[in-house]
Amino acid sequence: MDCIYKNPLASIEERVKDLLSCMTLEEKIGQMAQIERTVATPSVIKNLSIGSILSVGGSGPFEDAPSEAWADMVDGFQKAALESRLGIPLLYGVDAIHGNNNVYGATIFPQNVGLGATRDAELAQKIGAVTALEVRACGINYDFAPCVAVCRDPRWGRCYESYGEDTQLIREMTSIVTGLQGQPPPEYPKNYPFSAGRDKVVACAKHFVGDGGTAGGVNEGNTISSYADLEKIHIAPYIDCIAQGVCTVMASYSKWNGCHLHASHFLLTEVLKVKLGFKGFVITDSEALDRLSDPYGSNYDQCIMAAINAGIDMVMVPFRYQLFLDHLKYLVESGKIPTTRIDDAVERILRVKFVSGAFEYPLSDRSLLDTVGCNQHRELAREAVRKSLVLLKNGKDVTKPFLPLDRKANRILVAGKHADDLGFQCGGWTKTWEGMGGRITIGTTILEAIKDAVGRETDVVYEENPSPDTFASQDFSYSIVVVGEPPYCESGGDSQDLKIPLGGEELISLVADRVPTLVILISGRPLYIEPSLLEKMDAFVAAWLPGTEGAGITDVIFGDFEFHGRLPMTWFKSVDQLPMHQEQNSYEPLFPFGYGLTSKNKVL
Q1: 3-state DSSP call for residue 549?
Q2: pLDDT at residue 456, as a whole number
C-alpha cells in the first residue's frame, strides 16, 4: 500500500501525520535544520534529511548569475533531497525583500520605507506577486519577507526594511503577504498556512517581535515596554499576516524587557502559537542561537534547549549544522527537550511543505524565466517609485512652485554620486548583504532618466562634485543635486547623528548658493537637515531607496505625474528629539508623519 503522505488527494493533516509516523529521530531533527548552500553537498542533504537550505546575504551560484543558473543550482539540491529515504523536498530560502534582489537582472523595487510612503496596499500586493514570480523562476520557494517591523526610531540600521512608524500603516501594507503566497479562498481554515501554487512562495513575517522598538534604535537591542504596548504597537501586524495564511514567522535577534525573543516561551508559544493561533513554523534568524550566550557560541546545549523549548521550529544554522544536530539529538535522547516538542516542530514544517506544493512540484518551472526583469514588472516598479516620492518643499515662495522642472531648459547641472550609481539607488540587501555601489545589475540611474526625459536641445552637465569653476564658466537654468546614504544593513546602519554622509550637506550648499536647486535625498530614513540648508533649497524630495527604476523619479519631477507620497515616518528637527512619534504631546517635527505636498503646494 502506498504511503498516505505521497497521495495529493489526502488531506494535509493526514499526510503530515502519516509522514511523521515514518520518520526516525535523525530525520526529524534534520528537517529542523536550515543550512547554507555552500556546505549543502548531496550527501549531506540526503543522509541528514536536511529540511531547508538558504543563501546567506546574496550567496549565489557565481558572480552575476542569472535566474537560470539559480534554477539549475536549486534543482540540484532538490534532486538530492528527493533521493533521501523518505523523499522530503527542501524549502530553499532567500532574502528577496524588495524584489528578487540577490539575482542579476531581477526587478528591484523600492525598499519598504518607500512603499510605506505610497500608502498603497494594492500596489504592495502586486509587488508581492511579481516578487514571487521572479523568485520562483529561480526554483526558490521560500522568501524571508515581509519585514513587518514598526520602526519607532530612525537611528535603527534596519529602518528602511520597515514600512514606517505607524502600526496601522504597517497593518495595511501586510497585503504583500497575499501577493507573495496568494489569496486563501473564503472557506479556508482560519490562521492555517496557505500558498497558492507554482508561481507563489512561502512567505515569512519578521522579526517577531518588537525589533523596531529597541531603546535608542540599537539593532538587536532591547525593547522596553509593557505587554499591552507590545501588543498594540508591534504584535498587531502579525495578526493580519496570520489571517492571510502566512506560512512562517522569523524570531527577532532583539530582546523584550531583557529576554531574548529566541528564548521567550511566552511570546513564541503562549502568544504567537496559542493566543494568535499561528499554525505554520517559527524559524530563527541566522546563527541566532549563537547569540543567546556570551561569549558568542558558548553554552551551546543551553542555547539549543532554550530556543527549541521556547517554540523555535526550524533553526537557521548556516555552517555549524553537524554540531547543532549532534547536540539536539543528545538533548532529545536525554529528555531535556521533549519528543512532543520535536514532533510539533516537524509537523509544522511538513504542514508548510505540503501546503506549498513542494511534494508535487519540487523542481523549478522554467516557463517563468521570461518574466524576470520583464517590461511589465519594471513598469510596476517605476509606478512604485513615482508613488513613493515625498515632496517636502516646493519653492522658496509657496505661491511660486519650483516644480515641475522645465524639461526644455538650456543647461541643467546634475551633481552628487547618487545621481549615477545604481547600487546606491538600491541600498542594502541588493546583490550582497550590505549592498554595494556601482552598476550592480540592470536598471536606470537617475542621471540616465534625466537625460531621457529632457528635450533634445537641453544640455545636461553631470559633475559628481562640482567646483566653483564649474559655475564660473557655465550658466545653468537650474540644478538637480542627488545626495544620500551609501548602502548598509543591520547594525552597520545604526547611526546616532543621522547626518547626510559623503559630504552631502557641503555639496548642497555649494550648488544651491549659486543655482536654483532641487535636492533629491536617497536614504533609508529621515536624516538631519540644518534649517539654513533647507532654506537654500528651492525644492526638496525624499526619494528613499527607489531600486532599479530611476525613471520613476523623472516621471514626477518633470510633471508627467503628480506627487503622491506621504511621510511614513516623522521627520525630526534634531536627533535630540528621538524617538518621536505623531501621538506625542510635545510633537514639534520638521515635517509631521503623513506630510507631503503636490506640485501646486497643496498638502496631501
Answers
A1: strand
A2: 95
CA-wise closest residue to 546 among 157, 136, 99: 99
Does position 601 have pLDDT exceeding 80, yes or no?
yes
Distance (Å, rounded) from C-alpha 251 to C-alpha 208? 5
Sheet of 259-260: strand order equals 222-223, 255-256, 259-260
| Closest residue by Cα to residue 384 from 24, 122, 76, 197 | 122
Instruction: Give the residue among 115, 104, 102, 58 at the shortest CA–CA distance from 546.
Output: 115
Question: Quick one: cell of 230?
Answer: 507590545
Asked whether 470 and 513 are in contact (CB, 8 A), the reply is no
Residue 285 is among the residues annotated as catalytic for this protein: yes
Distance CA 348, CA 343 (A): 9
CA–CA distance, 234 with 321 (Å, rounded to integer): 32
Q: Cis peptide leading into 546, omega within 30 of 0? A: no
Q: Are 473 and 501 in contact (CB under 8 A)?
A: no
Is pTM, for the whole model, over 0.90?
Answer: yes
pLDDT score of 417 more than 60: yes
Closest CA to 539 of 598, 592, 485: 598
- Catalytic residue, chosen from 27, 490, 538, 549, is 490
- pLDDT score of 251 more than 90: yes
Per-residue model confidence as pLDDT tens digits over 74-95: 999 999 999 999 999 999 999 9
| Distances 452 to 54, 388, 457, 553 between C-alpha atoms, Å | 39, 21, 12, 12
The band of 585, judged by pLDDT with boundaries at 50, 70 and 90, is confident
- Statement: residue 41 has pLDDT above 80: yes
CB atoms within 10 A of CB 586: 6
Q: Would you give the DSSP letter of residue 211?
A: G
Q: Please, which residues bridge with residue 94 across strands?
A: 143
* Identified catalytic residue from 143, 220, 285, 505: 285
Q: How would residue 434 be classed by pLDDT, with cut points 50, 70 and 90?
A: very high
Closest to 289 (Cα-Cα) out of 493, 30, 33, 26: 33
SS3 44: helix
**Strand locations in 440-599, DSSP E?**
459-463, 478-484, 517-522, 539-544
What is residue 69's three-state secondary structure? helix
Q: At what angle do helices 375-388 and 121-136 cross, to 10 degrees?
A: 150
- What is the pLDDT, as a whole number, of residue 582? 87
Contact 110, 98 (CB under 8 A): yes
Is residue 200 within 8 A of residue 359, CB to CB? The reply is no
Q: How do residues 362-381 score in pLDDT, each as one tens digit?
A: 999 999 999 999 999 999 99
pLDDT at 1 over 80: no
- Find the length of the chain: 604
Give SS3 for 126. helix
Chain-centre distance of CA 309, in angstroms? Answer: 28
